[in-house]
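Standup notes, structure subgroup. Blocker cleared on the zinc ion input:
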Amino acid sequence: MTKKLKFIFTNHLRERFVQRTNSRYDHLKICRDKECEECQKLKEEIKQKSIEEKREVDTQIIKRISKADENRSYVNNTGFMTWYYDKYGYDDKFQFLVHKNILFVVLIKRGRKIVVTCLDARTHLVGKATLQRKKYNKIPTKEEKQQSQLLEQIENEAQSQ
Ligand SMILES: [Zn+2]
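Run returned:
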């Protein structure tokens, strides 16, 4: 290994990590009701938790990333990568780190490793990438909104470092 790049965590990653490592928030995975009050309540709670318990959340993320293995098969999967390239641009390099049921998506940008989000590794298996894309396409507004917010956030956080 050559020099170690610094990992940068986004708030989006922290929120997704809190959500995906706590079964309390499973409702968000299955609910498709945009107006659902329970969803709003849970999302608000996740947001609060990821801010108030930021240090603890970061410690947990670091712990899991340090034990994670790079999975090159994601990068070699065209369907999966098209989705990410459309989202972040073709100029950036990606790294996919897997630890147990969590898949960390790492964007290598300007000499830094920005961990943009984490996914459930079991539902984002390489072979299922196209299925996953179709699922997202069914609910474009919510996802698109999140994507553009996420991009903006990454830019802001990258610049403030
Ligand atoms: Zn709901």
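Discussed briefly. The chain is about 55% helix and 20% strand.
Next: hand off to the docking folks.
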